[in-house]
Design goal:
CATH topology: Four Helix Bundle (Hemerythrin (Met), subunit A)
Strand order of the largest sheet: 1-2
CATH superfamily: dinb family like domain
Number of helices: 7
Oligomer: single chain
CATH architecture: Up-down Bundle
Radius of gyration: 22 Å
Largest sheet: 2 strands, antiparallel
Shape: globular
Number of domains: 1
CATH class: Mainly Alpha
Order of helices and strands: HHHEEHHEEHH
Amino acid sequence: MLYRILAFHNYFTCCLQVMCHTCIIMNAISEPRLAPPGAGLPKIELFIARLIFRRRLGAGTRESFNADFKRERERISNLYRNCDPEAAARRVLIKRLRGMEDSSRNWSVWMTLDHLRMVNRAIAHNIDRLSRGAVPKVVASTAAVKPSPRADASVTAEYESSCESVLEAAEAATELKTKARYAHPWFGSMDAFGWHALSGYHMGLHRVQMELIIEGLRGMPPMKPFAHAVHSA
């Protein structure tokens, strides 16, 4: 009897190990080959993005940038609040949007919020420092603000807090068109006004990304409980 129990235990253990290794192999096979973080945009696309952003700077004001940011924040909040938390953790490969690096198109809803959290914090910091006549010492990098694949629902609080940080920094700045400037990796040297202009523009880009992720989730099969448990382990 003991021999049969041990044999069954060994058989079950072997089956579980095979399933785990299979999951790992399948994940490796299905992982898309994307450009490395920080690779940037195609040259012609970057040229057009700079023209569009320059036009945004010329036509915008502190009030209009705040309005854009608040509008995109509300849209994003509605998207993630109406998304199942488990589904929101699933990565979805979408088409590359203009203005978005190739390495950023295989994210989950939570990863998108994690990225926005980091960028919003950085923009708020830059606005605050530049409005005080100081220049941030760290070189801005798109590769430095890629999200964690393990991001989960807990990121929402930090994301909302980061949004408040942007609005508070813009409100507190006496002057946004500052002499002090800090370089963005794509748009070059910018004053606090430029970084404020970027805030809503950036939110809008990733709001569209989140919409495409959620659209992709609707076409994906439901997660199997056992497979999910093995993957989580």
